[in-house]
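tool_log.txt
---
The assistant was asked to compare two proteins side by side. It first ran the structure predictor on the initial sequence, then on the second. Raw inputs and outputs are pasted verbatim so the downstream comparison step can read them without reformatting.
(1)
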Amino acid sequence: MLRSLLPLCVSLICCGAIAAPPAPQAAPPTREHFAPPGWEGSYHDLHYSPVVRIGDRVIVSGIPTPDEGDDEAKARALFVALRAHLRSAGADLDDVIELQSFHVARDQAEFRQRIEPVLKVHREFFKDHYPAWTAVAVSGLYSKSATFELRAEAVIGSGKAPRAQIDKRP
């Protein structure tokens, strides 16, 4: 009797008469807003989030350079601030997958001059498994005294076991 029902069952399944129960819908990821100590005014006064976390993805808004110090000291302070922003949402520099930097410069020569100290400091903070990075020259930034600004995206946990599939230089 079972053998006689088998073709009927196969036919019902193939035609969709017997369907699997619908998959449960995953809950949308939670969006959380963060501001490291000292950056609360960005959220309350300027109406933007210094840091937003959606699931394991962390987005850091542009952080301007501080007013004091030479360009190298400003860059170092900026990367320290980036680390604090990331940590407020549970990420760290190892989790950074992309950087965007905006440099105040009138022309290509000034842009190259301004980015050199940033490149030096970048090498201190990202020793290997570098994030993607786009550097852009701009005529001005919201923070009038800032010489450059840094924005980042991170994926929490992505820095635990990174791989680089890039051939060595010949």
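(2)
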Amino acid sequence: MSHQRIESELKNWLEQYLKYQPNDFEMVYDHWIQQSFLQMEPRVKKAFFSKLDTWFFHTHAFLQGTSYQYEARERILTVGRIFSSRIERMEDMKKELTVEQLTYIAEQQMARGRIYSFAQGGLTGAGGWLFLGIDYPLMMLMNIRAIQLIGLTFGHEMNHPYEMMISLKVFHAATLPKRLKAAAWRELVEEVKDKEHPYIFAGDDQLTDEGWLEQPMKQGFKSLFILMFRKKLVQGLPFISIAIGAYSNYHLTKQVTEFAMKFYQYRHLMEKKGE
């Protein structure tokens, strides 16, 4: 895979969002959401989204402190050293390896993350209320972690405040509806282009907003479908509920990891051109 091929793939991938036209249902939904939040007291709305953002910040910090994350980090470095013996720190990944090599290593992280999501979704479909209750927080945690690992692969330290905010912004953009992704992509690209400080994030630190709420609503519908088909057993197992849970979680992680991969590829190529 050459640089030109990756650039071409990036361009084609981005075109689907730049040219996307929302349908009538999406426009009605947007209008309904906006009207609903206009009727909400501004102070209450601000507190609601602030609590959501705080949860994501704490989740990111929690993941950075786990031994599982440390092991994954060492695994990435070990694979990187197969390509270059000069790699000692995470930052060396982007200096010593080509975008093709970084993409290969990141694809391993993506595949692992999708398998975990598929298995977790299947357990949610087969399990009881406990699994259903923790499904969404667990899915968000797994997808934030997947983005962290892709970012690490491309040589960005996730425990720096700047990289933490960028990875959470990537997560936010990746989980937005298709019609809102192009604008979110442009914001991300502008942020890394106009980077003022290597460690401090100077942009807007708000993550969640009205547009993002479509993702939790989809989760609610998924849970409803799982409950509807839970009693339809085949050989004692609710296979339809298991399939709904597994496919839904796999699809979300595929969407998130693909967006993250494209962003970090683009960022890497942009930085190399800048050099």
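---
observation on (2): The chain has one domain: 3-17+50-274. The two ends are 22 Å apart (CA to CA).
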